[in-house]
Amino acid sequence: MHRRRAAVAVTALALLVLPACMPEDGEGRQGAGDARQAVVEYVSALNSRSASRLIRVGGVKDEPWSQKEASKILATKGGRGWKISSLKVDQGKDSDTSSARLLANGNSGVLLKETLTVTRDKNTWHVDLFSR
Length: 132
Known about the structure:
By secondary structure, the chain is of the alpha+beta class. It has a single domain (24-127), classed as Nuclear Transport Factor 2, Chain: A (Roll), CATH 3.10.450. 45% of the residues lie in helices and 25% in strands. A hairpin with a 5-residue loop joins strand 2 (97-105) and strand 3 (111-121). Helix 2 packs antiparallel against helix 3 (51-58) and helix 3 packs across helix 4 (64-77). It starts with a helix and ends in a 5-residue tail after the last strand.
């Protein structure tokens, strides 16, 4: 009798906990989790003030124009110790394009709030950061 109660209790607990483990932002659909990871890498590139990592996550060639744009992005957003507090990824009708709403807290209470377009090219997700 005790084993049966324990089994019922474990099942009930699993049913309560399982919804908390489910993705809330579309990451359960094929590819959206990788889009999410691209945004996480973007934030990491900002924190490390790495132009090469920013260029890589942006999916462009490392050329003088991309170095210049990366430097501008890093001058305004880089090195602030961003910690993601909310990241919602919505995959659009096109399975190769997602929209990401990012909210991150930085050092000294600075807030980063961005809506980013994330695209897949040859099975790799990139954050659209660059003008070319």
